[in-house]
């Protein structure tokens, strides 16, 4: 058979680029097909904050954090809560990935030029018990350069391989079928879409201009998840998270459509854990949208008061930054698909960050001058822009006026009673009169300030929300934001796609989000954050190496 390449990769996102770089270094010829234009090279990773999960890193040690492989694995397995027969490979992937994160990951990335911001973030702090969900210690390492900084070394290597003739890009090529010779995958077939000049991340047209077919010894599916496809999200929504929201906003570009999952399943691949997914509850509508229903996630510190749609405070331990899916399940079971933060100007100055490369120009531009400016100039510029222009933000000096505008923004029946809201906040404020407290959130924010990183840049000094000296008051409507697919194509540790019989489908591999970041769901039911980009890198690297050995 005449092959067009040794390997075809479907998807030019991070996982696909890492696999392509490994294949090119092994001297293999690769075709990368992607339905988007060249300007979207790097896919969804470009828009990310660039967080990476590392264990016992130099950055942690400098911040006086004591971490270990055993502690990280305990946290991962407690969070994943694997409980299904099909979780065998996801569990093996979890063990392998934690070993990578505690071992060669940082050195391997450093060799490729990736550097890290010195303060380690503490995401997903957990449910309150040592056993179960959450990070026991800070592990969220922000890449210097954010998402584009993560992509940069792999983009450079792939472009150099393109110049050498080892890699060929086929943009605006949409795969509709994986072709076979007997039982082995031998290529792809699909439609050539009309050229598009839209800027990165914008929705591109789907007008068909022709068709194509390519042959290779192996195909790696690296097409991403389902977060841009609300119909697919709702179809797979699990009962344990309540009823699927009527209204969602979108944390990923339109092309994150999940179409390759069904196409690969039709070719014999097995999909597991369809109901496992990762969506955020701190979503705000972008005042300057790039893709459809463009959402930004607030990365909150621990001080804001969190109220449901009727003004009742969320229960222990559902505080900002503690348990994403636990909070999602609680909110959806209230019968509403939104909630509220109430905070002060002092809190927003120190505790509000926004996820995404474009919302963090200081880190994305690798500018220490801008970083220092962010820390010393009051409310960060991107946050101030949302405060001034974002439809989900309300600013008032007095609580009655704030609550009245909150009811107006929600529309319909006024659900928030000023008496109820004031009682919740005033009771919390009274807990600050002593260095001890029965309020678990007050205890948590004091505990957060025991961590040097949080005290320096992420947690405001405890203060009373209703004290005018700390104002004005700010309310933020928080929406459900779609993001990650935690289930996907089942793969073994070589990223070979497995069929319904548990055996590898010859010639077929899957990496990144389409494979649940490894195995069909390396995170189990929930994630520890900083683990999505890392899962793309780890699975892409492994697939590239395994495929290079498997082709002639």
UniProtKB/TrEMBL annotation:
Keywords carried by this UniProt record: Flavoprotein, Oxidoreductase
MF term (GO), any: oxidoreductase activity, acting on the CH-CH group of donors
Domain annotation FAD-dependent oxidoreductase 2 FAD-binding: ranges: 6-533
Signal peptide extent: none
UniProt cofactor(s): FAD
Gene3D superfamilies: FAD/NAD(P)-binding domain (3.50.50.60), Succinate dehydrogenase/fumarate reductase flavoprotein, catalytic domain (3.90.700.10)
High-level lineage: Bacteria, Pseudomonadati, Pseudomonadota, Alphaproteobacteria, Hyphomicrobiales
Statement: the UniProt record of this protein carries the keyword Coiled coil: no
Protein name as it appears in the record: FAD-binding dehydrogenase
Matching InterPro entries: FAD-dep_OxRdtase_2_FAD-bd, FAD/NAD-bd_sf, KsdD_DH, Succ_DH/fumarate_Rdtase_cat_sf
Oxidoreductase keyword on record: yes
């Amino acid at each position: 058979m005449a092959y067009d390449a040794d390997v075809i990769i479907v998807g030019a996102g991070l996982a696909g680029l890492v696999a392509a770089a490994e294949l090119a270094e092994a001297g293999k010829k690769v075709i990368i097909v992607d339905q988007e234009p060249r300007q979207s090279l790097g896919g969804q990773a470009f828009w990310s904050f660039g967080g990476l999960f590392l264990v016992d890193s130099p950055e942690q040690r400098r911040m006086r954090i004591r971490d270990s492989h055993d502690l990280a694995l305990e946290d991962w397995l407690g969070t994943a809560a694997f409980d299904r027969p099909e979780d065998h490979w996801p569990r093996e992937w979890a063990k392998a990935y934690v070993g990578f994160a505690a071992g060669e990951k940082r050195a391997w990335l450093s060799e490729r030029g990736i550097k890290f911001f010195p303060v380690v973030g503490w995401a997903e702090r957990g449910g309150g018990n040592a056993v179960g969900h959450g990070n026991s210690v800070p592990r969220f390492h922000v890449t210097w350069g954010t998402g584009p900084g993560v992509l940069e070394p792999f983009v450079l290597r792939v472009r150099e391989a393109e110049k050498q003739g080892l890699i060929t890009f086929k943009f605006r090529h949409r795969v509709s079928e994986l072709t076979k010779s007997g039982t082995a995958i031998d290529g792809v077939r699909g439609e050539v879409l009309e050229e598009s000049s839209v800027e990165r991340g914008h929705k591109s047209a789907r007008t068909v201009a022709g068709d194509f077919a390519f042959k290779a010894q192996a195909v790696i599916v690296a097409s991403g998840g389902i977060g841009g496809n609300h119909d697919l999200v709702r179809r797979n929504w699990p009962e344990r998270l309540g009823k699927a929201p009527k209204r969602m906003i979108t944390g990923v570009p339109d092309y994150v459509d999940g179409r390759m999952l069904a196409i690969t399943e039709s070719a014999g691949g097995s999909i597991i854990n369809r109901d496992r997914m990762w969506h955020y509850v701190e979503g705000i509508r972008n005042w300057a949208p790039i893709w459809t229903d463009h959402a930004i996630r607030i990365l909150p510190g621990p001080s804001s008061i969190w109220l449901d749609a009727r003004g009742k405070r969320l229960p222990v331990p559902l505080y900002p930054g503690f348990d994403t899916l636990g909070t999602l399940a609680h909110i959806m079971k209230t019968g509403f698909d939104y909630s509220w933060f109430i905070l002060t100007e002092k809190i927003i100055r120190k505790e509000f960050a926004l996820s995404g490369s474009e919302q963090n120009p200081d880190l994305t531009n690798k500018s220490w001058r801008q970083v220092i400016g962010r820390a010393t100039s009051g409310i960060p510029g991107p946050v101030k822009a949302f405060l001034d222009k974002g439809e989900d933000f309300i600013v008032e000096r007095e609580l009655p006026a704030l609550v009245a505008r909150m009811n107006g923004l929600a529309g319909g029946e006024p659900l928030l009673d000023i008496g109820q809201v004031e009682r919740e906040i005033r009771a919390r404020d009274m807990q600050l009169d002593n260095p001890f407290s029965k309020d678990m959130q007050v205890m948590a924010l004091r505990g957060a300030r025991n961590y040097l990183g949080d005290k320096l840049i992420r947690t405001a000094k405890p203060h009373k929300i209703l004290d005018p000296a700390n104002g004005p008051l700010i309310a933020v409507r928080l929406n459900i934001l779609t993001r990650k697919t935690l289930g996907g194509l089942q793969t073994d540790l070589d990223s070979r796609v497995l069929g319904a019989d548990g055996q590898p489908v010859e010639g077929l591999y899957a990496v990144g989000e389409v494979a649940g970041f490894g195995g069909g769901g390396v995170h189990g039911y929930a994630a520890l954050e900083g683990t999505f980009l890392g899962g793309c890198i780890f699975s892409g690297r492994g697939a590239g190496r395994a495929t290079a050995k498997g082709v002639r």
